[in-house]
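Input structure tokens:
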């Protein structure tokens, strides 16, 4: 039977999973489908207006997802680190996952506010690519991969312990 602590973990996993779907599903649609279609439109004004309004609306969902990631992620972290399944390898992988997640939050904030000036200088192309919506999607994919590795590391430590 699940106790209150277990139920809290179920809700946190559910919230963490939903935030992932909103972020990566919404981001993939906006970047790979809507963005490409908007760039094909002949009417540049309409394309720019649609891009701005849908971008602002999606930005509000992304901000909500960030709050959910942080609250649920901190609770999942406490739960995992309190267990003997949390090895040194688990801790290092989790630290990498959190660092990449924070980088994603920073990139999303920069894209949303559009306050970044276009990068210039010798590494401008590389900096533009690293701060792009497609880079954000790749980062998300890597963070989900690290989550799968964490789960496997945790279960394997419990089995062998
Ligand atoms: C402050 C940020 C975050 C923290 C502290 C955090 C922490 C965690 C922890 C501790 C777990 C449990 C891992 C395990 O099974 O042992 C987890 C799972 C997971 N995280 Fe995160 N996370 C954060 C952000 C993100 C982001 C940005 C994404 C997606 C882009 C993400 C996607 C996932 C997924 C898909 C799981 C697997 C859920 C499950 O199997 O129940 N996380 N996270």
């Amino acid at each position: 039977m699940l106790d209150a602590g277990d139920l809290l973990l179920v809700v946190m996993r559910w919230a963490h999973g939903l935030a992932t779907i909103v972020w990566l599903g919404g981001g993939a649609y906006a970047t790979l489908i809507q963005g490409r279609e908007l760039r094909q439109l002949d009417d540049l004004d309409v394309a720019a207006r649609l891009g701005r309004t849908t971008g602002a609306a999606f930005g509000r969902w992304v901000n909500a997802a960030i709050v959910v990631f942080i609250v649920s992620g901190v609770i999942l972290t406490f739960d995992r680190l309190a267990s003997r399944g949390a090895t040194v390898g688990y801790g290092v992988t989790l630290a990498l996952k959190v660092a990449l997640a924070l980088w994603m939050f920073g990139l999303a904030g920069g894209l949303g506010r559009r306050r970044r000036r276009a990068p210039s200088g010798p590494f401008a192309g590389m900096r533009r690519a690293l701060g792009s919506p497609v880079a954000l999607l790749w980062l998300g994919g890597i963070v989900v991969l690290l989550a799968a590795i964490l789960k496997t590391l945790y279960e394997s430590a419990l089995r062998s312990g």
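The chain has five helices and no strands. The chain has one domain: 4-160.
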